[in-house]
Design goal:
The complex is a heterodimer. By secondary structure, chain A is an alpha+beta fold. Chain A contains 13 helices and 21 strands. Chain A has helices at residues 2-25, 74-80, 131-142, 179-183, 242-250, 295-304, 307-314, 345-354, 374-386, 399-407, 429-435, 451-462, 466-482, and strands at 54-59, 88-90, 96-98, 106-109, 112-116, 157-164, 167-172, 205-211, 215-220, 233-238, 256-257, 270-273, 279-285, 319-321, 361-367, 391-397, 416-422, 486-492, 495-498, 502-503, 520-521. In chain A, helix 9 (374-386) links the parallel strand 15 and strand 16 (391-397). The longest helix of chain A has 24 residues, at 2-25. Chain A starts with a helix and ends with a strand. Helices cover 78% and strands 0% of the residues of chain B. In chain B, helix 5 (85-120) packs across helix 8, helix 6 crosses helix 8 and helix 12 (257-266) runs antiparallel to helix 13 (270-298). Classes of the chains: A alpha+beta, B mainly alpha. At the A-B interface, helix 1, helix 5, helix 10 and helix 11 of A face helix 2, helix 3, helix 5, helix 6 and helix 7 of B.
């Protein structure tokens, strides 16, 4: 009798639960105008009429600290990106533009760059931004005791000198054509370290309050030299659980949410998509030892997967097939002529047989919840590769497992490891360093060692002529494509979820770098 | 007095053993340094950070440093946020206490009366419903329950906020999620204890004397049934504060100390993990001691050797 009661109650609850969840899964909800459905919205929302002055954003976690120079961290950037500015930044087309500099830097000679600073700029506490402040900020990043996690980025700088109050010179240890790009992440901070506890920047917003574990509130900075932003107040709430964050968005408590996957896009009223891909999904291959050292097998891995289907069905159209290189073609240094490997499982099977690899087992190290739809992708890839005659030993690991795996490089690397690369540096040099360069170099986590590629890379890094350098990078990428150094899967457009109409075009670098001053939010 | 002193001494031994285990195991199992640095960190930088944090020394050496620090009340600085560990913990502890205590009060205030009512007529319809509901309440996974509560009351009906800390309306759903399993157990234990006691001869004697039912229940039965109820309440409170609240805290983005513990574990922030374990061990030991002492007041027959 007791069991019957429990049973009835349980059934009632189950029915209730399914009714609730199916109504929110229903793809035919009203207001489908901006929804992805099968294909992403290609037009950006435009907002006319009265604009809202406040915005509530849901971020994926609390920032570690409020020090903008410490590392590139999504959680911190969600709060501080528009509180602090750097000398340069990337615009909507991915081009470098001056921000706190007056113009693009001048290369005086291969090892010396001159930067002219913008004049009349102040930090929000009234301290002027001048050469002394800029030198302080740069020196702080370079200080080994400070231990910034921007690692090798500023390694090439030997010294910084003041030319006059609004001009500085950077002397380098070796030619570094990417110095301007690197300076785009170097946030300018006031010349005393109190800003770590109380953020003080030159940007359009300042931090009004910060409640540990809960939220941060930004307000428009009155001392900002540019146009006053439409959004006067931005609240960023830290909600680590993805489901809770989504529900808060659906309940209207959040206007904007980060970290919502493309597989949730159908449930959203408004989706803001980056105009250009912001990340590339690749599988790092241990090309040094084992059955994957044979280029034919690696090529087969690339030919076996239907990238179109993955982009359309798995990522809801918010991705496109990877163009056989580890960065999307709008990123500097990439070869715009490269085409994705076609989907040709027959040819893949043939190559596997020719290489004598039929029936061989390869291990795939995947993750669950570290990257968007990583687990689903792992299973999809496994089925494609087993269809061409290979056996795949699928291992799903946690974030810590992934960290261990990614640092196991060279011959020690796991056979196949999925990773997602981003466009933070605005040049494919970063991805090449990480995944395609000589494994013995410090900054590399590569498992691919090709002398020709290494030579091209070294030559490209010191090449002074811009066109010749482009040519060298193109040659490098063509070779790694032919040799199938990696499995190139997809370029993905980051997306932001919104509960009301917001006119905003995310930059093609990191989608969590939120430019609140560029957002137009529909008023009530 | 001697009882208290002995209890505290044993409690301290427990705490020390727990700390030791956590310290040693976490250092064997995890490598927080790689976790902290970016992907393009050089081997040189990894080494530098490891040295700075003292993680390149032997475990014994690290333990010695830690023990000598703790004696001077220095519990270390978090790798994650670069702030004193205890500062971070005590920032969040009140939030967890508010959540758990509110939940326990509700569980007890509702659970005990229902349990009593159920015990009066075992097998009757009230008992059936109460017991089944109790069973359901403590079997439902809290993450599912919490998510359903949010879905119904916050998203669909819009009556309450989905998450976060704020005014009293923010407490409602998390407290319900915390309270429900305990409520289920309270009903069961109260019911069982009461049934046991109500079957005793002295209850029959009291009723034969002509005392009213409610008087018998309140004055005789309940007081005698109280010890298991008290034990359970204390146990539930201690273990919810010290750990099981993590599900609700994470789901509702409640800035409590369990949420902090989870984040510390994810980031392998070893010193923060140890700090949290220490605080929680102390809380559990203290609650157990207080409850032990209170038995004396509930049942004067209990003497302490």
């Amino acid at each position: 009798m007791r069991l019957l009661c429990v049973g009835i109650l349980a059934c009632a609850l189950m029915a209730f639960a399914t009714a609730c969840s199916s109504s929110s899964d229903d793809g035919d909800d009203g207001g489908a105008a901006e929804k992805g459905g099968g294909s992403p919205a290609t037009a950006t929302t435009t907002v006319d009429g009265p604009l809202a002055e406040e915005l509530v954003v849901g971020s994926t976690e609390e920032p570690v600290d409020l020090d903008p120079q410490r590392s590139e961290n999504d959680a911190r950037n969600a709060v501080l990106w528009r509180v602090y500015e750097a000398l340069y930044d990337f615009d909507a087309d991915g081009q470098l533009v001056p921000v706190l500099a007056a113009e693009l830097p001048e290369r005086v000679n291969p090892k010396t760059w001159e930067v002219k600073l913008a004049t009349g700029v102040e930090f929000s506490n009234g301290v002027p931004f001048d050469a002394d402040a800029a030198i302080f900020a740069i020196e702080r990043m370079r200080d080994p005791d400070y231990g910034t996690q921007f690692s090798t980025s500023f390694d090439s700088i030997a010294s910084v000198e003041k030319v006059d109050d609004s001009t500085i010179r950077l002397k380098l240890k070796r030619p570094d054509f990417l110095l301007p790009n690197r300076l785009a992440v170097l946030k300018m901070v006031p010349p005393d370290t109190k800003f770590v506890k109380d953020p003080v920047g030159t940007g359009p917003y300042m931090l009004e309050s910060y409640e540990a574990g809960s939220e941060a509130v930004l307000v428009a900075s009155p001392s900002y030299r540019g146009e006053a932003p439409a959004l006067k107040k931005v609240t960023i709430r830290f909600i680590p659980d993805a489901n809770t964050r989504l529900q808060a968005l659906q309940a209207g408590e959040l206007d904007l949410a980060l970290g919502i996957g493309t597989n949730q896009a159908a449930k959203l009223d408004h989706v803001i998509e980056a105009a250009l891909p912001t990340a590339t999904g690749i599988v790092r291959i241990n090309a040094i030892e084992g059955v994957l050292a044979d280029a034919r097998v690696r090529q087969a891995l690339n030919l076996a997967i239907d990238k179109e289907a993955i982009a359309e069905d798995l990522f809801g159209g918010y991705a496109e097939p990877a163009t056989c290189q580890p960065a999307p073609p709008h990123i500097a240094g990439t070869d715009e002529t490269l085409e994705p490997y076609p989907f040709d499982p027959e040819e893949a099977k043939r190559l596997v047989q020719e290489a004598g690899a039929e029936g061989e087992t390869v291990t795939y190290s995947g993750t669950a919840g570290v990257f968007p739809q990583d687990r689903d992708l792992a299973q999809v890839l496994t089925s494609y590769w087993e269809a061409i005659g290979l056996k795949v030993d699928l291992k799903i690991k946690s974030y810590d497992g992934f960290v261990k795996d990614i640092y196991a490089k060279g011959a020690d690397a796991p056979e196949l490891l999925f990773s997602l690369t981003d466009n933070g540096l605005g040049h494919v040099e970063r991805q090449i360093t990480s995944y395609l360069s000589d494994p013995s170099s410090d900054a590399s986590v590569s498992a691919y060692d090709d002398q020709e590629v290494n030579d091209l890379f070294e030559a490209a890094k010191v090449e002074v002529d811009d066109e010749k350098r482009e040519g060298l990078f193109n040659d490098l990428l063509r070779r790694t494509c032919d040799e199938a150094a990696l499995v190139f899967i997809y370029h993905s457009n980051g997306l932001l979820a919104a509960s009301r109409a917001i006119e905003y075009t995310p930059r093609p670098t990191l989608i969590s770098n939120l430019y609140f001053d560029e957002m137009k939010v529909a008023g009530e | 007095m001697r009882y208290i002193a002995r209890n505290l001494a044993w409690g301290s031994v427990v705490i020390v053993l727990v700390m030791l285990t956590v310290f040693v195991v976490s250092r064997i199992v995890s490598d927080p340094v790689r976790r902290m640095l970016d992907f393009d960190a050089t081997a040189e930088q990894v080494r530098a950070v490891r040295e700075r944090l003292g993680l390149d020394e032997s475990i014994i050496h690290q333990l010695w440093i830690y023990v000598t620090d703790v004696i001077t009340l220095d519990f270390g600085t978090s790798y994650w946020q670069n702030r004193p560990v205890m500062e971070m913990i005590f920032e969040r502890l009140p939030n967890t206490l508010v959540l758990v205590l509110a939940g326990m009060v509700i569980a007890v205030a509702i659970g005990i009366p229902i349990g009593i009512a159920a015990s009066l007529r075992p097998g009757g319809w009230l008992d059936q419903i109460a017991s089944s509901t109790a069973l359901l309440g403590l079997s439902l996974p809290q993450f599912w329950l919490g998510a359903m509560l949010i879905l119904l009351f916050a998203v669909t009906l819009g009556w309450l906020p989905t998450s976060g800390k704020g005014g009293p309306e923010h407490l409602v759903l998390p407290v319900i999620a915390i309270a429900l399993p305990t409520l289920g157990r309270m009903v069961q234990v109260t019911r069982t204890a009461m049934i046991d006691v109500l079957a005793s001869p002295y209850i029959l004697a009291a009723k034969a004397k002509g005392l009213s039912n409610s008087y018998v229940i309140a004055r005789h039965a309940l007081r005698n049934a109280f010890i298991p109820i008290l034990t359970l309440s204390a146990f539930e409170t201690a273990y919810t504060i010290a750990g099981t609240a993590v599900v609700v805290e994470v789901l509702f983005a409640w800035p409590g100390v369990n949420h902090l513990a989870m984040q510390a574990l994810q980031r392998q922030d070893l010193l923060l993990v140890q700090g949290v374990v220490l605080v929680m061990a102390v809380i559990v030991v203290v609650i157990n001691l207080v409850v032990d002492l209170s038995y004396r007041f509930v049942d004067p027959r209990i003497r302490f050797r």
